[in-house]
């Protein structure tokens, strides 16, 4: 899709909705209203999508969201490389999910980027200020601690945290 169509089909209407709903507090009702209004702009968006205020979303046309997903206020989601958020995921306030990497040329960062998709597995929780780097799959049932920077994949049902993130412990699974 060319940039002009992308701007008028996705970017402008989505930011218009965000502007119109910015005055609304972040309550259950208002996050559901905001989520319902923003659903059509994503590649795919399941039921019961809730989203807080002032979330920055790049390339929503490349972001797939499953059922029962909550994205808290002031997050940054970059869909450039493809972003898939599976069901029952909670993304805490001020989290960053990036799907592209900087390209280095002649020892310096260029204006180009290399897309690399991200998957947030079902039942995962990203605590506030977590950063998920491009190319990472957050496995099913993972808890990412506050302020963690996830640079690689981990096993399912683990609690990870730190900079860079490491395993804190494995979660017990109730059968």
From TrEMBL:
Q: Which CDD domains match?
A: LbH_MAT_like
- Which GO molecular function annotation, any one, does this entry have? acyltransferase activity
Q: Which keywords appear in this protein's UniProt record, sorted alphabetically? A: Acyltransferase, Transferase
Q: Which domain of life is it from?
A: Bacteria
Q: PANTHER family under this entry?
A: SIALIC ACID SYNTHASE-RELATED
Name listed for the protein in its UniProt record = Acyltransferase
Q: What is the lineage of its organism?
A: Bacteria, Bacillati, Bacillota, Bacilli, Bacillales
């Amino acid at each position: 899709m060319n940039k002009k169509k992308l701007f008028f089909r996705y970017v402008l209407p989505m930011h218009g909705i965000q502007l119109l709903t910015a005055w609304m507090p972040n309550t259950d009702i208002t996050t559901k209203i905001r989520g319902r209004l923003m659903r059509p702009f994503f590649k795919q968006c399941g039921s019961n999508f809730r989203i807080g205020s002032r979330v920055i979303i790049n390339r929503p046309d490349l972001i797939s969201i499953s059922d029962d997903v909550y994205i808290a206020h002031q997050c940054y989601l970059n869909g450039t490389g493809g972003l898939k958020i599976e069901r029952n995921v909670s993304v805490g306030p001020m989290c960053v999910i990036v799907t592209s990497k900087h390209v280095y040329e002649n020892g310096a960062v260029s204006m180009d980027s290399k897309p690399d998709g991200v998957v947030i597995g079902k039942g995962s929780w990203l605590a506030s200020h977590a950063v998920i780097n491009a190319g990472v799959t957050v496995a099913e049932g993972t808890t990412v601690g506050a302020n963690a920077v996830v640079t690689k994949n981990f096993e399912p049902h683990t609690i990870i945290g730190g900079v860079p993130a490491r395993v804190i412990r494995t979660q017990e699974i109730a059968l």
